[in-house]
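Action item from last week, closing it out:
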Amino acid sequence: MRTIVPVLETVVETPSTVTVRFDYPAAAAPGQFVMVWLPGDDELPMSLSYAEGALKGVTIKAMGASTRTVLGIVPGARIGVRGPYGNRFDLSPRRILVVGGGSGTAVLAPAAEGAARRGATVVAALGATRADELLFRDRLRGAGCGWRWRRTTARKASTASSPRSSGRASPPSRSTPS
């Protein structure tokens, strides 16, 4: 179903991430995605970060020109939506570990909430490049997810003595059979 819908609400989630909420009657479940576009622009596949009845939402991180444009959407603006597509998450297990990082957490939040509503024990392990970019921390805590905050620092391996000093990881060398 391809539809133009009005934006009901925008929520700034982190300094670079916004959630856009809209009415869209198509049934959807945690784990599915929709195609979203601004009139006159290309479609972008976006995971549903909210799928409560007709109220849907996508959470968008500014990564390129199209997503930066979407971040400027205001309530009342019109967007195109098509879908949902993809498989839904299996929320039947009694114990679930949700592991995600950055904008990838958007699709996991409704799954964690849905599983918790069904009585599952849900623990969330989330990552972000900076503490202020950690997405849905309060939302997951509010859903009853187990939570422990630990700050870690990523360190680059020293490449000063390496003949390859690009700073990138390289695959292990392979021996050629003689």
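Closing note: The CA atoms of residues 102 and 129 lie 7 Å apart.
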